[in-house]
Amino acid sequence: MNNLITENISNPHELERMYRKEPEAFKKSFTSAWEQNPDSQVLAVWFERLHFKEIEKPSLLRKDFLFMGILAILAGITSRIIFQFVEQQVIAPINLAFGILPFMAAYFVYQNPPKRGVLYTLIALFVVSGFYLNMLPLVQKDSVILVYLHLPIFLWVLVGLAFTGNDYGAGSMRLAYLKFNGEFCILYASMAISGMLLTALTMQLFRFVGMDIAEFYFKNVVLFGAVALAIVAVYLVSRNLSKNIAPYLSKIFSPLVLATLLVYLITVIWVGKNPFLDRDFLLSFNGILLSVLAVTIFSITESGKDEKKTITDYINFALIVLALLIDSVALSAIAFRLSSYGITPNRLAVLVVNILIWANLIWIMLSYLHFLQNKTGPGAIRDAVTKYLPVYGLWAAFVTFVFPLIF
């Protein structure tokens, strides 16, 4: 082996083949070959490859770890205080978003400090949003409910601004934020399942000694833990812990979602469900649309930069066409209901959202079609996703701050 390494110094391909075939033998013989040829740049690279060790080791005293811990505790305490006021029906439950999202934004600002203008904008918008939300009356009116539904989207955009920092206009940073969201959801769900198992075990252990701690535990431990866990997940994803999980999940779930939806839509047609007349079914139709859009975007963000097309690309294209079909039916049904029953805040909001999604899907579909026809690269598809994100944020802001004034 030593002789073979020396003989193939100028043949990197053969060295790689030898290493993959017999890695242990290669490592043992490499030292001798390296000593005999200390001036070889090829062997110098192999030496670093075989003997490389991380200089920086994880430590509980790392500044970012300590900052994450402080933020997690503050987020948990803040959420518990907010929940106390929610229980007393002094403020709306949606205020709990302010116990999580601002702290996520704070972590990103710490990791990637922006210019003062961006920082002041972030702080001002979070503060104004909080004051504005709590100036609204606690009534179950359509315009107020729409604020509760759209405000988290607007705050999510603000967290994205904190994530991208000074590069908020760069498509690559917006794409990274979308990828972060996918990996965050995967990691948080995994940890949340573990937390639920721990909760069930704790409940049962206290029941054995005749104590029912359910109410106390959920108010003080589960709520605190769920919020703090979100900050921990942000830290772990930013450390690239889950980057190898998400691409595989996207490859698994995309075909499953496509098959499930096709079967569901065929069943809907078979049983004669009509979104034009059935309001609840129309709402579920829109829910399906949002789910397909989310799965498709997640799959696109997790796909590689390779120009080579795979089966996943064709599945994604089929999902986009299916989503466009669903959105077209939903748009027709909403337009029918508007012409038949008049304008309400809910109908107007749903109509505009469907129009925005329809336009975005058309852009993504055309970009994908050009990619599959070898007219453009995968970058055009990502542009169709990332460049459209501010449109959703602006509409969420409009519904949140203007709808209550109009209606």
Distance between the termini: 81 Å
- Estimated structural class: mainly alpha
Helix-strand pattern: HHHHHHHHHHHHHHHHH
* Oligomeric state: single chain
Helix percent reads: over 70%
Major sheet summary line: none
Average pLDDT, to the nearest integer? 84
Strand content: under 5%
Cα-atom radius of gyration = 26 Å
Task: Kindly give the count of domains.
Answer: 3
Secondary structure tally: strands: 0
Please give the count of helices. Answer: 17
What does the overall shape look like? globular
Low-confidence runs: 54-60
Question: Could you give a short description of this structure?
Answer:
This protein is an all-alpha fold and 407 residues long. 78% of the residues lie in helices and 0% in strands.
Characterization of the model:
This protein is mostly helical and 407 residues long. It folds into 3 domains: 2-51, no CATH class; 63-238, no CATH class; 246-406, no CATH class. The chain contains 17 helices and no strands. It has helices at 2-7, 12-21, 23-36, 41-51, 63-87, 101-111, 116-135, 142-164, 171-208, 214-238, 246-271, 279-302, 311-341, 345-372, 379-386, 389-401, 403-406. Helix 5 runs antiparallel to helix 6 (101-111), helix 9 packs antiparallel against helix 10 (214-238) and helix 9 (171-208) crosses helix 15. The longest helix is centred in the middle third of the chain and has 38 residues, at 171-208. It is globular. The protein starts with a helix and ends with a helix. The relative contact order is 0.08. Mean pLDDT is 84; it is low at 54-60.
